[in-house]
Amino acid sequence: MVVLGLLLILLQVKAQDSRVLYFMNYNPYSSYTNPGNPSHSRLYIGIPVLSNLNISLYNSAFHYNKLFKANETGTTITADKFVNSLKKNNWLNTSLNIELLGFGFKADNLFVSVGYRIRLEEYFSFPDVLFKLPVKGNMAYVDEPAEMKKLRLNAMLYHELSVGLQYKLNEHLCIGIRPKLLMGLANINTKNSYFKLTTDPQTYEMNIQEQLHVNTAMVVNPDSVDIMKILPNVFKNMGFGIDLGATYQFNDHFGVSAAVTDLGFIKWKTNPRTFKSEVADGGAFYQDGGFCFSGLNTNRLNMDSLMEGGVDQVVGQYKDSLLNYFPLEQTYQSYVTTTYAKIYLSGYYRINKQNAFTLMFRGDIIGKSFLPSFTLAYSGNFFNLLDIYATYSIIGNDYLNVGAGLGLRLGPIQLYAATDNVLAAFSPMNSSMLNVQMGLMVNLSDKKNKKIKSKTDN
Amino acid sequence: MKKFWLFTVKITIFSLVILSFVSCRKDYFNNINSVEASGEWGVPLLNSDIYIGDVLSSFAAMDIEEDASSGMLKFSLFMDSTQLIRPTEMLQINNHVYSNSFSFPAPSGDFIPPVNEFQMTFQSDLLDQDNFEIEEGIVKSGTITITINTDIDQSNYSIHISSPNIFDAQNAPFEVVFTPTTLTQTIDLTGFKFVIGPADLENTISYTTTVYITDIVSSPLSQYVVQTDFESNSVLFKSLKGKMDPKSYPVRFTNPISFFSDNLSGNFTLLNPKYSVKVGNSVGAACRFIADSVGFRGPGFYSTILNPGTQINCDASTGNGYYEITVNEGTGNELVFSNQVKEFLFDGNAIINPLGMSAGTITIDDQAAVYVTSRIEVGLESKFDYVEYMDTIDFQMDDVKYNQVIEEAVLRLAIVNGIPLSGEAQLYFYDSQQNIIIDTLMPSPQIFRAATSAGAPDYQVISPTTSVPKLITITGSQFTEILKADKIIVRCKLYSENPNNIIRIYQNQKMSIRLGAKIKYNTNSVEL
């Protein structure tokens, strides 16, 4: 209950790595979602910390109205309703992005941007079995075993120095690339996780198969925190990443774009630890590579212990022997993880210069997992100073994500804000997507663009 | 119009965006006081092979062991009340007083005896011992006091008493000298040896009294009288050799039988019990045990295992150790065990030197003893009626909270029985006023049926019986009632469906028990 409470408290953070940013053509930071997205800036300088702030939480499972309900005297935890609402696979993802330094400028057909930012990306995927098994019990899994293949926690905290290069080849095609130097700060990487509980419907015999392989690394040694060693470690977990993108405009109305971002890797060297666990032959309960518990065998009970130390001592002995079946091996080798790449594919229909509709597919690649999403977006420009965006997204199995974005260009000052789920404002505790992307910068628009805009207005 | 529509849309979206950045807060977790959760857990509790030998050892108060040759279980009753017979009373000589006197002429007037030595030999019965002809005996302790009374008025005389039958500790012939000032002497007989002629029923000892007088002077007396008084005191022989009549000693002891107890009752007839009595004899004479009453008994019940008059003969020990003889006797073919059996009775007589004088010379020493022990070894081959265990267990679970969470619990008991006995079990729950709360937890008390056995001679189990798994359902209301219980009575019973059938219990006979519990819970009615 406490854990659930904490999770729900976390949900009160209203934020998100906005998909809306992808459609903000007048925002130079849209190049972070597609470096081939044509920039309309001549020069921009981000305000440190404030220029590109993104906090996001995607939570497909823990919704207040599924977990709680009011009763006459207080609140009821509706565990049954909660576990019944779970999808086969569920997500709890967070991301944080703070740009400390950012600027860009245009040189003829080339647009160069530089950014240095701190990023946190966390993906926790869990099958419904994780909660359904303890609540509904193993007898709910007699027809098919309680199996967890996708229980994974992957998280990465790193800082990134990137240089974006965008080149407009012609009136139709714009390509971009953003190589990035990555420096890891902390990581947890679930390389493999498997759990299967099979229950015999007649005898209730339980067979457990289990495998776990988790890597962790931190700049801080958790066993002995030494402040002096932290700073050098900040630059030891080096990696490289790249964003690639292209936009092709067929005519004034139609165009497509494609991008791959955060394609890269980091080699983790500071305080690396690898935890491995697999059912081992710990004694009589080991069977067919798993832990098979068919009941206590009185012949194996140490009756002397029972007489002298009582049930507690015997239970203690069993607990100790159980650990023999589930050993946790810990090693200390460096390892490499890939960054969590995103694939973007989109096509747009521009009604006129001010209004456009775009259909976008985004896929997040997290290790062996893939989280797809589809977004339909409306982009509108108002008085050449106000940009308004509305989106509808299907993220994973969640269909209720109505997003919105706002861009305000007041001369050289540009500020923007966006969220993928505006409905979260009305019911934050029941929303899957909570995010905000906002920023403040000095942005000088491209003259050509202004000219085009002036002609259009005339 | 189109622009108006677009403007309206833009304003609406703008409003939504602004709203989205304004969060509302409320206390979402106010007073969480209930949980709606329901599920069902199935847990295997027990998966064990239980051997009948272990069960019997746990409940019976006797050692159960495997017969090495047959594999059959057996138990033994050792009659620890071994009775030792020490025939030391035969080495104890009663105190005797023996007197004799003689006279001889005194020097009177001109008569001066030509010799100065007067001698007389007497036959004493100092060692007279009923029914024992002593040929040789070595004294362990005791004294003999000899007092001389005489009227000899000579100033210089001595009286010598000697015996050819007595030798002192140095093996020198016995001789004691008395003077006028030492007419009473006590002789310590320790280490003395008596050697007596054969076929002398009275164990006669010869004494010779000799008076020596020197410097004889005339006496007014006409004769002198010498009276000799012998008094033996607490003479105890270390060993005696000789002939004796049979000597009978009673042997009687009982052993409480604790196969059953207040908790354990039953009725069965064990077949072919092996009874053995062991007689050990270190007496230098043969020994015979004659049974009178040997068997199991209780109020109004007696089951003999050794016929009255049964004799067990044990030869004489040839050395310093015991001569032992173990005699196996099987009286009848059945030994009935029931709640009535309370003790084992062993009653009879041990007769030392049963052949009497005709047996010839025997030897008895003060370390010699005869012991009698007995043992019953019973294989668990029986006509089995039943054995029942019943116990009352204190039960205190009334402090359990949230018991209404349990909607239903189902215990599943599956048994594959390789024991040729059927079994029942039942639990009875009582409250503190001794009112029964639940008495039918088990829908039917029988939880397994007997395994199928072959016939004679081995009666081995040929086919274990697989019982239909028994489902014991405890409803939520029953569970609530159970928590109110103060005591539980547990009743388990092993029985034969045909008590006339012969069954054998072997070490390898077992039952495989699988017990699991399925618990359905629902927290909806619980307030935290």
The gist of it:
The complex is a heterodimer of chains A (458) and B (528). Chain A has 458 residues and is of the alpha+beta class. Chain A has helices at 2-11, 64-67, 79-85, 129-136, 227-233, 303-325, 447-457; strands at residues 41-46, 53-59, 68-70, 75-78, 89-107, 110-127, 146-148, 152-168, 173-199, 206-218, 237-249, 254-268, 273-278, 286-287, 290-293, 328-331, 335-338, 342-350, 355-366, 369-382, 386-395, 398-410, 413-419, 433-445.
Topology (SSEs and partners):
The complex is a heterodimer of chains A (458) and B (528).
Chain A: H1 2-11, E1 41-46, E2 53-59, H2 64-67, E3 68-70, E4 75-78, H3 79-85, E5 89-107, E6 110-127, H4 129-136, E7 146-148, E8 152-168, E9 173-199, E10 206-218, H5 227-233, E11 237-249, E12 254-268, E13 273-278, E14 286-287, E15 290-293, H6 303-325, E16 328-331, E17 335-338, E18 342-350, E19 355-366, E20 369-382, E21 386-395, E22 398-410, E23 413-419, E24 433-445, H7 447-457
Antiparallel strand pairs in A: 1-5, 1-24, 2-5, 2-24, 3-4, 5-6, 6-8, 7-9, 8-9, 9-10, 9-11, 10-13, 10-15, 11-12, 12-17, 12-18, 13-16, 14-15, 18-19, 19-20, 20-21, 21-22, 22-23, 23-24
Helix pairs in contact in A: 3-4
Chain B: H1 2-20, E1 32-36, E2 38-51, H2 52-59, E3 64-66, E4 73-85, E5 92-93, E6 97-105, E7 117-124, E8 132-150, E9 157-167, E10 173-178, E11 184-188, E12 193-195, E13 205-213, E14 223-244, E15 247-256, E16 264-271, E17 274-281, E18 287-298, E19 301-306, E20 311-314, E21 323-329, E22 334-338, E23 343-352, E24 362-365, E25 370-379, E26 381-394, E27 406-417, E28 422-430, E29 436-438, E30 446-448, E31 452-453, E32 461-463, E33 465-466, E34 470-475, H3 476-483, E35 487-495, E36 502-504, E37 510-522
Antiparallel strand pairs in B: 2-37, 3-4, 4-25, 5-14, 6-14, 7-13, 8-11, 8-12, 8-14, 9-10, 9-12, 9-13, 14-24, 15-23, 16-22, 16-26, 17-21, 17-25, 18-19, 18-20, 18-23, 26-35, 26-36, 27-33, 27-34, 27-37, 28-29, 28-30, 28-35, 31-32
